[in-house]
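User: Quick sanity check before I run a bigger batch. Here is a single chain. Can you write out its predicted 3D structure?
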Amino acid sequence: MATLKIKLKGQDHSSYLAGDDRGFELYQLDQAYTVESPTRGDIPEQILEIDDNKIVEFEFEDNTVWMADNESLTTLFQQEIKRSADGDELYLPDELESNEQDRGIIKKIGIKLVKVFVKKNIIKPKMLEMATNLENKQLPFPAEDFKLVEYGVLAACSPEIELSKLKFSETSKEADLDVSSRYLLLLHGTASSTFSSFGDLKDSKEWKDLIKGYGKNHLLAFQHRTLTASPLENILELVKVLPSGIELDLVSHSRGGLLADLLARFSTDSRGFDDTEIELLKKHDRVVDQKVIKQISDIFKTKKIKVKSMVRVACPANGTTLASNRLNIFLNVTFNLVGLAVGQVGNPIFVAFKEFLMEAVACKDDVDVLPGLEAMNPQSPFIKAMNYQASEIEIDFPLYVVGGSGELSISFKTLVVILGKFFFMRKNDLVVDTESMKWGSRRVSGKVFVFIEKSGDINHFKYFCTPNTLKALIAGLSAVTDGFELKLADKERGIAGIESGAYKSDNVSGNRAIAILIPGIMGSNIGEKDDLLWINYWRFLKGELKNLAYDAEVKGNYPLIL
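Assistant: Done. Predicted structure follows.
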């Protein structure tokens, strides 16, 4: 992309900020300016030239930061971009204005500071390598440095959410656990760790009282790679080390809910996925997924692992809009919500995460470059298979869904404004679409209970310290349904809840008037009576629309049924 020229009113601030941005291997701070009103005549004008070797960081009035390249800047400041034969110019205002003036209370966000980082002239590692480096800094705990860990480690966990190493059998490689009574297993979220996801629980008396009911040393955690490994690869590692005969309650946060749903599937039916779901994965060349499913299935054929109940918090069960676009958008939001954006000089996790984010901005990759994030893309074949509501595998134990809607939050008002510019956002907790949290693998009717926090005080990383959602978590683990709504499941609904079905004929008596309805193409049916192709979204996904070709040799030639 051509160079973008930015003009702004502000003071040089570079000398005050160098200490906050040291330690990066690939980038160095080049410029920094305060941002003042463009109408002020007493403030000098600054000119920045941003090419593909530079990354711009904005700091807003609520201390949110956002890393951007030329392309992102044109999205954020569409009205301020001036195009000409000599190149594009951005006359930077001192406020970022919302695109959705009619929806919320947030109209404009003040811009405090602009920084410019420039790439160093060195060979860059690939995104997968940088993600691994970040995980290696986030996930270690005493006696486990994680550099040699492929997918994850099962660990003992204290009520204060401190991890320690378990003992494992030298022969079976399984964890040395007493399986005579039930365990509670924690499954953390994306770009996070057990402590980062669940650490707020340590201050809750209700949590500590509940844990006592499981007995001493009956709290476990699976510390795992969430960026560089897929949920299937995570589960393969976990079930290898879980001892046969163990009974589990599950508490998951974010992407950890996908792992919980996988455990639920395989513990219900050792196949994990039925023939139709496997066929979808084959159609999309998901060779690795199929291989791992087979490995997990083989383990469950000889090992009994029982899931008693689960509380799934803020899970992208049907994917999340945030993971459907450029990788840097997802990482920008996560960087702010986990609290790293405030600046932690010398913190290796801060340095690794921020440089990872800058490189994601520069390389313009989609989330698909990282298998752990691709699994949360709403268009992922994995997500579509997980949500097939006509699956032969029907889970028959309680699921308590805890979610929230925080898109009108004033705590992260800058993120609300920015995300509104990149996406048409439905209700969400700034990371996961609220509606998606209610979905997941097929379950027996009457076994899914949903609690959604609607106060606006919630965000994706605050479920375990917000009173209402913490109360819902404890209630779910205690099998108390007060405050939850029963989710009504319709087994005839199409993929991801999109309606489908067929018109049914009835006998005509001739004694009453007849109303004739002539539907449009989306309301028609094509196919044999018991073998409809249109509208059957699942068959669309398997590529069967090609059977509508004029010369297709299809039984019955798929007649149109009005």
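The mean pLDDT is 87.

User: Great, the batch can go ahead then.
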